[in-house]
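2024-03-11 09:14:02 DEBUG pipeline.ingest accepted 1 chain
2024-03-11 09:14:02 DEBUG pipeline.ingest length=347
2024-03-11 09:14:03 DEBUG pipeline.predict start
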Amino acid sequence: MRVKNVLYLGLSPAWSVAGDRRRFIYYAKHRKINFAKPDDKMLDCIVVTENTDLRKVRSIYPDTPIVYDLVDAYLVADNYLNDQVRSLAKISTGRIGPTFLPYTKVVARNCRIANAVICSSLEQEKLVRAFNANVHVILDSHDEFQLMDFRNKKSSSSSIFWEGSPYTLPAFGPYTEAFHKLKLERDATINFVTDEYYSKYLGRFIRTKTTRTNRKMLRRLACEYRLLPWSLKNVLKAAENSSVGIIPVNVKSSFQKLKPENRLLIMWRLGLPALVSATPSHLRVSSTAKLQNTFTDSESLHTLLSHLLDSEEKREENVRAGQLYLSEYHNLDLFLTSWDTALESVI
């Protein structure tokens, strides 16, 4: 490994958010890479994230290779207004320089400037290749989550697990009818693990309570629910007390629809059978794992949930197939080798 001295421009000042700690930070610690300072003269390369304007970086470091770690599908937007507002918001917070371009165009420009681009799914890779030929698909490391065995729950247990950002919680909205039916048929409970408070816009503005913002949607679910503040301890606790994990996604959103499969893989790592919205990445992974665990509406979600909750055999089969997928397609060696390849491609 020739890369030793890297300037990293991360998503958060302390490199504490998942997009930092589960990606380059985790890799760099394993490979004992030195984190350079901005004024260091001897840089092997620069790794930047979506909060970076590569025009600025390139002007300061004209000859240093740049690797652009683009985790989300910012090359697409749900509509022009959202695209333009996102760009203006990034400008106002100093994340990008003044421009009239919508944010998708800024990201495309970054892709062209970078010597290599890392994305997080095969579906995103197709978009990036229109702007850069040196593209590498690397998912998050999930080693911070304990690899857990399948746990049988009593047949009367109907506890459902969900983990994620408050921004994605409204994705439950289109599927509320499934939970209405579950409430009539059994005493179902949903264990939510997410931040108790969050800033609604750009992670900085209008701090609000998660349950308050989603009050109407949570009421429509009808089921009992518990909300645990996000922590590794609470994720493990909720997973141990649940029978099935679910990942609803707003598939009508072009941006959300292109989310990678990270959360599905986390469910399997936690020893939970998982049901997921039929996004391109979920369909791809489920097909490879030979599982029928994707839903498209409330009816299909209710059917799949009922079958899993009623059958220990089906739950165990889901976890067994999922963890086999992890061992073959998402392990530490593949994660480290993928980052090695990406960095060495630019030096």
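2024-03-11 09:14:41 DEBUG pipeline.report The two ends are 11 Å apart (CA to CA).
2024-03-11 09:14:41 DEBUG pipeline.predict end
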